[in-house]
Specification:
The protein starts with a strand and ends in a 7-residue tail after the last strand. By secondary structure, the chain is an alpha/beta fold. The protein is 49% helix and 16% strand. This is UspA domain-containing protein.
């Protein structure tokens, strides 16, 4: 099972939900857990900001690495505290989140992909893109989109 996360409350909730439902202490462990996050290339982030800002690449790269480290530390803490998971793989892959997740599904021969849902409107999904909208038809496994209950905001 792969759970794709980023630095959002929605993805942390998806990881917690997955841990409670599939990896609870005392529960028979049917799946191996891979926690995956994607790191965009610094050049893609600087490209969004504007042309001619290549001198920002080292700073952006360092910020992205700090974010990835923070995401993985929180994931490890959740795995240990919520479900006492003693073994999980924690992977970071560089690239577009949607592609990274689908590649990991194939590489690990995953049966279930778990991802969070940001709850974007149709317009915002069209502009920003939606990882769940992409992965549902493209991942070669069952895709579980975990939504936060409205009262958990």
């Amino acid at each position: 099972m792969v759970v794709g996360i980023d630095d959002s409350d929605h993805s942390y909730y998806a990881l917690e939900w997955t841990l409670h439902h599939f990896f609870a202490p005392g529960q028979l462990q049917q799946y191996h857990l891979v926690v995956l996050t994607a790191k965009p290339p610094a050049s893609s982030v600087v490209g969004i900001v504007g042309v001619g800002l290549a001198e920002l690449l080292p700073t952006v790269e360092a910020d992205l690495k700090r974010t990835v480290a923070r995401v993985m530390e929180k994931a490890k803490m959740l795995c240990a505290e919520v479900a006492q998971v003693t073994y999980a793989r924690y992977e970071t892959m560089e690239g577009d989140t949607r592609s990274v997740i689908c590649e990991a599904v194939d590489r690990h021969h995953v049966e279930i992909l778990g991802i969070g849902c940001h709850g974007y409107s149709k317009w915002k999904r069209a502009v920003l893109g939606s990882v769940s909208d992409y992965c549902t038809p493209h991942a070669h496994c069952s895709v579980m989109v975990v939504k936060r209950p409205k009262h958990k905001h």
